[in-house]
Amino acid sequence: MTTTGRRGRRPGDSGTRAAILEAARSRFSTQGFRAATVRAIAGDAGVDPALVMHYFGTKQGLFVAAMEFPLDPAEVVPRLLAPGIDGLGERLVGFLLQVVDELGEANPMLGLVRSAVSHPEAARMMREFLGEAILDRVAEAVGETVGADRPRLRADLCASQIVGIIMARQILELPELAAADRATLVGAWGPTIQRYLTGSLAS
Amino acid sequence: MTTTGRRGRRPGDSGTRAAILEAARSRFSTQGFRAATVRAIAGDAGVDPALVMHYFGTKQGLFVAAMEFPLDPAEVVPRLLAPGIDGLGERLVGFLLQVVDELGEANPMLGLVRSAVSHPEAARMMREFLGEAILDRVAEAVGETVGADRPRLRADLCASQIVGIIMARQILELPELAAADRATLVGAWGPTIQRYLTGSLAS
DNA sequence: CCAGGGTTTCAACGCCTGTTGAATCCCGAG
DNA sequence: CTCGGGATTCAACAGGCGTTGAAACCCTGG
Fold this sequence. Notes:
- The structure is a homodimer.
- By secondary structure, chain A is mainly alpha-helical.
- Chain A contains eleven helices and no strands.
- Residues 1-5 of chain A have low confidence and may be disordered.
- Chains A and B meet through helix 1, helix 7, helix 8, helix 9 and helix 10 of A and helix 1, helix 7, helix 8, helix 9 and helix 10 of B.
- Chains A, B: This is TetR family transcriptional regulator.
């Protein structure tokens, strides 16, 4: 429902760029990079597709801009680590589930996961974000404070369960996981993360 | 390099249908449903795209035919359960890693995962396959033999880690996971699965 | 009140997609 | 030897895609 067929600039601050980003976040998160089309995103934002290209140059550029993570890992990770190693797994899982619930449909994590599987560039983005922003930090902290062996392997193991949580709960929507309350899930997944971080890795 | 431009039937048994299926498995597994094109699959099989439609009716039909699982869960699941509950987690992870290594590029699990994220029909296929063929069976067995509570939730938790293994190791290719030897991974992931199946779910 | 430039749209391009209908070919049954 | 029918290809369609260049618009600075 754009204002009737006239071209050119409308008065006011216009916030169109933000509207495009919002629409892109939603489309990329629910459909992935390939299936989300520039035309659909522009449509959602009530705007001509050419305007999207004017602002972001290319679909890839729009993706990078839209998938920027709304939380700063450099601030969040230390806050989760602060109370100490005990219960870190539960805290981490609880935080993850809360963030997922709050972000809802426009969730860059979902967008990255959905895109990574068939778009190598997105896989690289996700690997780098996970690695540099989160896993390396966690690995370093765990290696220092409890002297755990193979810290980076431990971090990758955590990532394997976290990605699995997102896949099973948000994308595959396995019934018992989608229905369970947060406390149950924290109780189930928390100890797994905790063991990957600080427990023995041999069986 | 198809036999020079002539139409019509060539002599012999022709095995063309099998070649198309093989090409489809490989393309769907590495690129997912959307990114894999009928034309590319036909090209790999050295065949005209129209022949693909002739055999399978539609791209979706080709996908369903190609993603049929090469193992029969009704035979595999009992075999894994047979030695008893002890060490079931390790056995399951070891089996999964072995199957992934053996199937290589043409792996229906990868194809389903890669497609499920942006193709609801594929997500349904994967949910049903996981659920009916595997998780329900495992849940039933675990519920009966050790009397564990909430068997289906336990099965879904296993699925969350298994899907995470595939994502992290095969798709995101997290470095330490892709490099680690199988024994290490079995030692790390096995106890997680075992706890989901038979352990306490509260922390 | 004029000029510049950011904002927005329009129309089109070239490409690739899944799918179709008809045509050719050749094997095997009668 | 004929002929039906499966195998295979060709050529085309209609639609969707990302992207482009130019045009219209209107606010702001001088």
